[in-house]
Amino acid sequence: MKMHTPVGQLLKKKGGEVLTIAQDVTVYDAVKTMDEKGMGSLLILDDQGRLAGIFTERDCLRKVVLAGLQPESVQVGQVMTTKVIYVTPETTVDECMALVTEKRFRHLPVIDSKEKILGVISSGDLVKFVASEKAFLIENLEKYIQGSF
Predict the structure, then answer these.
(1) 1 part of a folded domain
(2) 56 near 41, Cβ under 8 Å?
(3) 3-state class of 60 per DSSP?
(4) Which of 103, 108, 119, 124 has the most C-beta neighbours closer than 10 Å?
(5) Is 105 inside any structural domain?
(6) Which strand (E) or helix (H) includes residue 119?
(7) How far apart are CA 125 and CA 7, in angstroms?
(8) pLDDT tens for residues 35-72?
(9) In whole angstroms, what separates CA 111 from the centre of its chain?
(10) Beta-strand (E) ranges in 46-91?
(11) pLDDT tens across 83-107, in order?
(12) How many whole angstroms from its chain centre is CA 147?
């Protein structure tokens, strides 16, 4: 089953709330914010408000905890992922699923042609969408088979 739905449609349903922080915020404060908001990542903005990186739970574990650094004294700008892979609103669900599977990450910023951040799609958002679409298809096939379509 192909999912040619543009990811921009998922954002409309999900909402475009984007959590961003500056590069000079401490890892401790970033993790505290993620915990309070139930998020697994934060987008990091540069001084001009453009995307500079992404900070994830994985960054915290690998680059701070395993390195023996103190979260209260390390800034997210020092440990964030700077090579951010992002998608556009026109990118399909299938393309997003392929990216998160191949690259093994869970968060895809959605950015328009003017570099405006529109939202973040998680692997969970993608799985939820695919599951709901399959359930819809199954329901309609059952109705068709039963002759009540």
Answers:
(1) no
(2) yes
(3) helix
(4) 108
(5) yes
(6) strand 117-122
(7) 10
(8) 999 989 999 999 888 899 999 999 999 999 999 999 99
(9) 11
(10) 51-56
(11) 999 999 999 999 999 999 998 888 9
(12) 41
DSSP states of 1-53 as a string? Answer: -----BHHHHHHHH-----EEETTSBHHHHHHHHHHHT-SEEEEE-TTS-EEE
CATH of the domain at 57: 3.10.580.10
Half-sphere exposure of 132 (CA within 13 A, CB side): 10
Residue 31, pLDDT score: 97
Residue 101 lies in a domain: yes
Residue 25, pLDDT > 90, answer: yes
Query: Residue 78's domain spans which residues?
Result: 7-146
Span 113-125, pLDDT tens digits: 988 999 999 988 9
Confidence of residue 127 (pLDDT cuts 50, 70, 90): confident
Show contacts of 112-116: CB within 8 Å, 24+ apart: 112/88, 113/88, 115/50, 115/51
Phi-psi region of 130 (alpha: psi -120 to 50; beta: other; left: phi over 0): alpha
In a domain, 26, yes or no: yes
Eight-state DSSP code of residue 67: T
Say how many domains are in the chain. 1
